[in-house]
Amino acid sequence: MCDVTVINPDLVREAEEYSGISDSKKAVEYILRLYFETNNKKKILNFQNSKIWEGNLDEMRDCR
Prior knowledge:
The protein is an all-alpha fold. It has one domain. 66% of the residues lie in helices and 0% in strands. The chain has helices at residues 9-19, 24-48, 57-62. The protein is elongated. The chain starts with 8 loop residues before the first helix and ends with a helix.
């Protein structure tokens, strides 16, 4: 199965310039991966700073 997605060429060009990758597909994949990694890190930090987080990660690591 092959899906075809049309992406704004200006955004693809911007992704290539930002990433330094000249292959359009690889540049877009790189930017998407970077976005999700960054977004996941933000979620983890927000969770740690929320009142939901109860615990001391340093203590937990010392107990091993």
